[in-house]
Amino acid sequence: MAHSHSKQPKPAGPKSKTIGLLAQFDDPDSLVAACERARDAGYEKFDAYSPFPVHGIDPAMGIRRTRLPFFVLAIGLTGCLVALAMQYYTNAMDWTKIFPGYAFYISGKPLEISPANIPVTFEVIILSSAFATFFGMWIFNRLPQFANPLHRIDRFRRATNDRFFLMVNADDSKYDANRTRQQFEEWGATAIENVDMDLTDQEIPKFFKLAGIVGLFLLLVPPVMIFRAYGSTNRAPRLHVVPDMDWQDKYKAQQTSPNIGTDKEPVYLYADDRAMRAPVAGTIARGDLQEDDRYYRGYEPGTLPPPAQPVAADGSSASFVSTSGPSAQDSAPAAQDPATTGQYPGEPDWIETVPSPFVVSETAIARGKQRFEIYCSVCHGYDGNGNGLVNKRALALAATGQAQWTTAKSLHDPTVKVQPIGRIFDTISNGRNSMGPYKAQIPVEDRWAIALYVKALQETGIQPAAGAAPPAAPQQ
Amino acid sequence: MATVDLTSLDNTIEDGKHRAPLVLGGMDYSDVTDAVAGVWEKKQPAIWWPIFGLAVSLTMLFGALIMHLFFTGVGVWGNNNPTYWAFDIVNFVFWVGIGHAGTLISAILFLFRQHWRTSINRAAEAMTIFAVVCAATFPGIHIGRIWVFYWLFPVPTEHLAMWPNFRSPLLWDVFAVGTYATTSLLFWYMGMVPDLATFRDRSKSKIGQFVYGLLSLGWTGSARNWHRYEMAYTILAALATPLVLSVHTVVSFDFAVSQLPGWHTTIFPPYFVAGAIFSGFAMVVTLLVPVRKLYGLENLITIRHLENMNKIIMATGLMVGTAYSIELFIAAYSGVASEQFAFYNRAFGNFGWAYFIMFTCNVFIPQLFWFKWCRTTPWFMVIVSIFVNIGMWFERFVIIMALCRDFIPGSWFYYRPTWVDLMMLIGSFGLFFTLFLLFCRYLPVIAMSEVKNVIPHADHGHEGGHGHEGGHPATSH
Lengths: 476, 477
Fold this sequence. Notes:
The complex is a heterodimer of chains A (476) and B (477).
Chain A: E1 16-25, H1 28-40, E2 46-49, H2 57-61, H3 68-92, H4 118-140, E3 164-169, H5 177-186, E4 191-198, H6 206-231, H7 293-297, H8 327-330, H9 338-341, H10 362-375, H11 377-380, H12 389-399, H13 414-417, H14 421-430, H15 444-458
Antiparallel strand pairs in A: 1-3, 1-4, 2-3
Chain B: H1 29-41, H2 48-72, H3 87-111, H4 121-142, H5 169-202, H6 206-215, H7 223-256, H8 268-294, H9 303-334, H10 337-348, H11 352-364, H12 372-376, H13 378-400, H14 419-442, H15 448-454
Helix pairs in contact in B: 2-14, 3-4, 3-7, 3-8, 3-13, 4-5, 4-8, 4-14, 5-6, 5-7, 7-8, 8-9, 8-13, 9-10, 10-11, 11-13
């Protein structure tokens, strides 16, 4: 610190330069009076120094009111806008690609700027204004300035204690060493002193150059290292400073159960070696109760026959028999003829109309059409006639012996046409013969919508494609 | 410097025509400097070391317990379903509240031109900052996964794609307390720069000259600098005033915005702010009475200062008492059974004893200050203010223990703090006192430049002096 050397004898000759004349006063009132007279004497570059803000000195010296408040106002308003924009961006917008916002309705408060955004906006205004005031004040005052010739003057130390000073700068147009000194005496100064700037202060010490060059080279090291790392390959995993939630101690579905023994003699936490646990017997997971047979399974409650023994041998999930199949005759004689009613023996009573929470409407059919075109048309074709692209391609492959394929049945086939909607629903849910189940992909409501659409499609009068059932003749 | 002979003046004279002076003993400018710098220059009173040793040990205990918490988990505390919030939030609200007196003294009393604030504002502001440090610690360590504490702030994270919820009172807290701590620090430091320059100019050691030289930023006391400085001080005071009111308002939103009977009330913000000022002033009195005695600052921190503070304690104590009664009335008048139960339970339930402590300490004991002897006798006022601090801690405890009896009687639970809870509360006091003792030891405890401004000087012998006048130097004549 500059002032720490103040005990040294003042360097003389060309090594120092007078930058002003300093007068000491013993009380604030003489300082104010002196300032007034300095101003009257035409001095412009002068300043007063005091241990506390002296009353009335601003008009005496002609200090103009600072523009600091306007600066603070500008920054405060900017802070307000920034705070609002930040909150809107992060809490109401989520379509940006990088760092997208998080637009979620939480505790029913609107996403847009609302009273709930006031506190943060307010705090940001205050914070930015406080920073503006604090830093603005120092910048306007040109502080910090650690090297100041005044700090070399012993007497001046009392400027922060109990003495009052006036300094006229040497570069003031009215400044004249002798005349100014005389004036100071007239104004009642108790001490007068030259303020010299030690010019050697401004010389850069020799070792600085060396240190600077070394420092510069050292500064180059990090970018070079980064550049090197950037250009080379590395097999080690990426550095993960904060893991956030990327790795967690947990077992995922289908993992083996944790080994609580040693590697040699493993002891598994669960005897069956699985990390997953089956539900406790007799319990049902929340939301899986699905009591309503009509809605969830498409048949009249209580009509599900006991597990079918007669035809289980072929492995099919239900005792479905093709129209010409023999099993229909094997089981108890049916009350109705499946060919006309679509009610097959060994199967529950399929419901004929859509079940209750589902409501038939134009939107429901439109939804069914849309879902049908996503899930079913690939095989059954848009018109339901079994001419979807997958079907065509599979048949072509089957013809050359590259694949086995059962033609997707035409939905306009008389045997399908007569089926109650409940059975169509069941076909979608659990599959039928060689058609796979869609229960896992399609939610219940959509399955009903598709079934409804299939029924609507059947009403259009489209004729089943001729010869749809037998595999097509070789087409090459 | 001959001044009006003030030695004969005594604080008890308060006849309107004749106000007690703010500085006694006929001190002049250099006397003030000597007295305040003496605190730092002279050897510390013998008692400083044992107190400091105790405070530092408690701080280390606090640190060790925080580590214990980090490595073991929040389960080391007694918080448990349904009392998810317990000591941590009680301590948080308690400490934030303590801080409020500092800002009130430095900002609000400044704007109201209450010149008596000059002798006590520095210490009170320091107290604010240290209290906010203690306060911020508690929610800070309660967040669980401490290594991702930065999620509290709107920091863009690449793989998380999440932001804080700006519509939540808990986030408002982060911003309010953060802004409060920052602004108080700036205000405190800025106010201290001229005094740090005094220390720089008096320091005899090289280290002292270097450190204080750095901290005082080359301050010379130039009139042009003073002009902008005073403007900045006024602006900061004007900013800190609504800020301090907002901070405890936002803290009270943590409760008031929730949907719990006993918490969901509109009276909370004003009642919390009054309580904060109440407890803060009690803490200032608790600290300053020993400080003025130990360092011989009786002429600067006079009985008049202490008495004024005690009057504020009494006034805010009455406000808090009113709020308690209104709460009870509203509950009774609301006709809402769960609201009525919440308050009945507060007063006569399992934590009724805490309610009793709260009421006694906050409402009845401060009434002693109606007696002049009580509010002008230093040792006595310390006792009262310690009671107030206890009472205010229990006030927050009572509010939060509402959680113990929630909507489902099956989950009712009697909260018991663990030893970690208790030691952490004590440890936070250790931290607070460590910081405060270091402040007394190394920094100007009284704003010298401001006190010099209120000393009546020979030519303008009017009493009370003229304080900072911001940008309007000519107004007080």
